Amino acid sequence: MILAFQLFSGTVNEVFGAFNSRIPFKEALYKGSTSHETLSNFLSVPRTTNNTFASERTLESLQVTIRSTLQIADYLWSKGYKYVLTGKLNQNSLERHFGVLRSLSCDDPPSTIDFLQSHLLQCIYVPAEQALSLKGNCEPKVETSLTSFVNQMRL
User: Fold this and answer.
1) Of 24, 53, 113, 116, which sits 20 to 30 A from 73 (CA to CA)?
2) Are 149 and 123 spatial neighbours (Cβ–Cβ below 8 Å)?
3) Cβ neighbours of residue 36 under 8 Å, at least 6 residues apart?
4) Which of 35, 33, 151 shows the shortest CA–CA distance to 89?
5) What is the SS3 assignment for the chain?
């Protein structure tokens, strides 16, 4: 029983390692790489009620996530990309965005109008800040006006 748990937890640790690749040549997901095989092999882990290490729903959710990640990787590889940094396929940016919106509302949950106004302001502020920042790694698009961002948000 302990050996089976160690095997299962080691496999899950490898799966999470494959999901958190952020270094292009060392950890990235390549076609046929160890990370690719780890993710592919985890799809065959049975989702049975006899499994005492993880619930059926947990395993099913993990397999949906793995399947989606592999489909994204296959699509990107078919378009000529050599590797995928799976650590970039997470929801941290969304959590940061909604965290900022929550922090603006103090203790009260924002109304629909407050939420929309805060969201629009953040959508204008962030691109403008990035375009005007000297720390950016790309040329700012000076010809793009701030009102074009507002118009895009209204669509």
Assistant:
1) 53
2) yes
3) 18, 29, 30, 70, 73
4) 35
5) CHHHHHHHHHHHHHHHHHHCCCCCCCCCECCCCHHHHHHHHHCCCCCCCCCCCCCHHHHHHHHHHHHHHHHHHHHHHHCCCCCECHHHCCCHHHHHHHHHHHHHCCCCCCCHHHHHHHHHHHHHHHHHHHHHCCCCCCCCCCCCCHHHHHHHHHC
Q: What is the largest CA-CA distance in the chain?
A: 65
**What pLDDT digit, counting tens, does each position of 15-38 carry?**
888 888 888 877 889 998 889 998
Phi, psi of 107 (to 5 degrees): -90, -25
Q: Delimit the domains of the chain by residue range.
A: 2-88, 92-154
d(CA 97, CA 119): 8
Residue-wise pLDDT for 79-123, tens only, equals: 999 999 888 887 777 777 777 777 776 667 777 887 788 878 777
pTM > 0.85: yes or no = no
Of the candidates 2, 83, 76, the one whose C-alpha atom is nearest the C-alpha of residue 35 is 83
